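Methods — Computational structure assignment.
A single polypeptide chain was analysed. Its primary sequence is given first, followed by the predicted tertiary structure written as structure tokens.
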Amino acid sequence: MTADFASRRVCTVWQNEDEKYYLREETLVMRRDSYGKGYYSLANASADTPWSVLARRKCQRFFVERTNQEAKSDFGWDDIQTTKSLAWEHHLALNILAAWFIAKTTLD
């Protein structure tokens, strides 16, 4: 994958629980792919984080979101009906194991 990356520190406006507004400094990470389509996201990384690290994390985000999408559709992550944290963690662990097993078997 080849793409152009850029990053800038920006100030964003947030609203807390008391409905008071405040400013927060974040990093805007931008990517333009080889077809000219642009993507952007806000990162809460510290100001001294190198842009190469931000670019790598921006690229990894696609694979994380794709994995979550597959977990929801293929492994039943969206069918969970629990309110207990431990049950949710067990269900999530089984989904991760199932996804890992399928990926490993596919690669082999």
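Note: Residues 75-108 form one domain.
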